[in-house]
Design a protein that fits this description.
about 260 residues, mainly alpha, about 0% strand
Length: about 260
């Protein structure tokens, strides 16, 4: 399985992992807010450990899969107030280390089995027939403005939209405008959080970047609404619903494209 497919699969499974970690009743838990049990929360931290299966691009895999794990932890923190159990720092560190150890041992077993049971001649033939790998980018090239823009072009446009939305919200508040154009833009942005990365070159990182940008700007706009109306934060439920629908649609589209095209 390619790295991008693994990231999409892990991203798709994060809500399930959050449910298992925070909401599933464990037979070993006594207190409603007790620390997480191994069988409940270990799945939330398995994504970074999978990077050991991509040693040829380990740091890239660690960045992608670690970002997916971070997104799952953020989702867990958002819903933690309504959960049956809590997420602790010790749990996070322990399960993260255990993930690397567990998958590292599996990787060693696979390598050892391949070494002892694989025909060297056939392996050399396979290597000779395999296409030549493209030279990897240097660190300076990866962080150049041109390269970043080519990879994250949809995210740059999305950031510009969110900045315009925030400025418009501030203008509406300052001049007491009744036209809620900023609210329409926020709902549109909630859809574009998941849709826009489909047109970029870095889908996973673009999706995560869009999520954090939307979360920060949307939270700021909601706080501005609460200044005049304490119940203004209720609209966050609608924004969250649209956001989840957009993310789900985006992940399904990307998964279908990677599998069939």
């Amino acid at each position: 399985m390619t790295l991008i497919n693994t990231c999409i699969l892990m991203l798709f499974l994060q809500p399930l992992f959050v449910y298992l970690a925070l909401f599933k009743q464990s037979k070993y838990s006594v207190k409603p807010k007790s620390s997480l049990d191994n069988e409940d929360s270990m799945f939330l931290f398995i994504a970074p450990g999978l990077s050991v299966f991509y040693l040829d691009q380990f740091w890239v895999a660690l960045l992608y899969l670690g970002s997916v794990c971070l997104l799952g932890v953020l989702l867990a923190k958002i819903v933690e107030s309504k959960a049956n159990k809590r997420l602790t720092r010790d749990d996070s560190i322990g399960f993260m280390v255990a993930s690397f150890i567990f998958f590292g041992m599996i990787k060693l077993i696979i390598v050892a089995a391949a070494y002892f049971f694989t025909d060297d001649a056939s392996s050399s033939i396979t290597e000779d027939l395999s296409p030549a790998k493209e030279p990897s980018l240097t660190i300076s090239q990866m962080f150049s403005v041109d390269y970043l823009y080519s990879q994250f072009k949809p995210t740059v446009y999305f950031l510009a939209l969110m900045v315009v939305t925030l400025v418009l919200k501030i203008i509406e508040y300052k001049f007491s405008l009744k036209e809620a154009l900023s609210g329409i833009l926020i709902m549109l942005s909630a859809i574009l959080v998941g849709i826009s990365p489909l047109f970029g070159e870095a889908y996973i990182l673009g999706l995560i970047a869009n999520f954090f940008i939307f979360f920060i700007v949307c939270s700021t706009c909601i706080e501005i609404d609460k200044i005049e109306d304490a119940s203004g934060g209720a609209i966050a439920i609608l924004y969250g619903y649209i956001l989840m629908m957009g993310l789900g649609f985006s992940i399904i589209c990307k998964l279908v494209y990677e599998v069939f095209f």
